[in-house]
Amino acid sequence: MSATDPTRQGAAHRRHMRARSPQEPHRNATPLELLFDLVFVVAIAEASQGLHHEIVQNHIGDGLLGYAMVFFAIWWAWMNFTWFASAYDNDDLPYRLAVFVQIAGALILAGGVPAMFTTHQLNLATVGGYVVMRLAAVTQWLRAAKADPERRTTGRRYALGIALLQVAWVALLFAPSLVLPVFVVLVALELALPVWAERAAAITWHPHHIAERYGLLTLIVLGETILAATVAVQQAVTSGEALSSLAPIVIGGLLIVYSMWWFYFDRPVHDLLTSLRKAIVWGYGHYLVFAAAAAVGAGLTVAVDRATHHATIGAVGAGAAVAIPVATFVLCLWFLHDRPEYGQTRYYGPVAAALVLLTPFTRHAVLLTGVILASMLALKLFVLRAASQEAS
Q1: What's the pTM value of the predicted model, to 2 decimals?
Q2: pLDDT at 13
Q3: In 3D, which of 276, 277, 282 has the Cα closest to residue 22?
Q4: Same structural domain, 272 and 305
Q5: What distance in Å separates the CA atoms of residue 320 and residue 317, rounded to the nearest whole number?
Q6: CA 339 to CA 16: how far, in whole Å?
Q7: What percent of the residues of the chain are helix, what percent strand, and what percent coil, each to the nearest 5?
């Protein structure tokens, strides 16, 4: 967590991948990072659409399993790029070229997602795209190890661990009958790698930069919900007879995405990232935050298909396709962002999640979910404002 180098200055820094200072002022996302995120929009959209099609066909188990697997590959590659860039982005030619390779890997992975949901098996594109992204990261870590003597062991551990794990991922393609148990083991090893690598010396990531990057990806996954609401509006315009059943979905969907946005960006979160341990819990916990937010979009599309009689799933199942990811998002965010000053509203997150999970048993699950979230948010803001006025 300590810094040994000041803010990068001039061409001398660009020749070496020196550690950046966590106290660097005005540290914002770069245009290259924004381009990287833009490519991940494609992969996340493919994963969300795959989940939607599986749920509509009532293949819920296969859909959830495939979604969890492919979303891990998307999230883990994005997350590792983000934390590395926060510590070592020097924006020189080799760095940019390595990121371009990672972007190409993301596109390859996205191209294999539809086939994975169709066959319910890992394929060469999904695994190959992931491996391309991760092997490009190996070159980045080797450069960092060479230029940063204080964290040389950390960089080498990352490079070695990533390289060995990619061999294992490729080998998994030749053992389709063992995909699930081996996948779980490899995921556990991937998650353990940063913990092991940074025991040697923690890299110098920037709390404000990390918080901004996670916020940007949150906006991307919430975009899937906006897209689903747009689909509902289009269906309502083209199918006048379905307007009465689609209007509650449109209104509820908008209330959901507005509330989810407000819950996430309620307060700055960089002050939560005060140690490596807290950062790992916060960073890893966002797998469920991101996956749930993107799944809400898939669920809303399922609700639209149900309302327009294009789905075989029942009304309770369609409602659950929205309620479960919304409740997951609220609970995970409550766990990750809860603070001492929220004492008067501490139980609002679990209460909201519990009420949302009851909505599938009603006639208007999406609308009620949106109303519950908006009501809890309004109540929380009222209580906190009243407490602030009393304190002053």
Answers
A1: 0.90
A2: 47
A3: 276
A4: yes
A5: 5
A6: 40
A7: 80, 0, 20
Contacts of 39 (CB under 8 A, 6+ apart): 103, 106, 107
Specify the pLDDT at position 230. 81
Domain extent at residue 258: 207-391
Q: How much is the pLDDT for 2? A: 38
Domain co-membership, 40 together with 101: yes
Q: Which pLDDT score, from 0 to 100, does residue 87 have?
A: 93
**End-of-domain residue from the set 197, 229, 258:** 197
Residues 316 and 376 in one domain: yes
Of 348, 347, 303, the closest CA to residue 325 belongs to 303
> Is the CB of residue 288 less than 8 Å from the CB of residue 267?
no
SS3 category, 30: coil
Distance CA 78, CA 73 (A): 9
Q: Give a yes or no: residue 341 inside a domain.
A: yes
Distance CA 212, CA 201 (A): 24
Mean pLDDT by 10 residues, the chain (392 residues): 41 64 88 92 90 90 92 94 94 94 94 87 91 95 94 96 96 90 95 95 93 95 84 71 78 93 89 89 95 94 87 90 96 83 75 95 94 93 78 68
Same domain, 140 and 245: no
Q: Are 373 and 330 in contact (CB under 8 A)?
A: yes
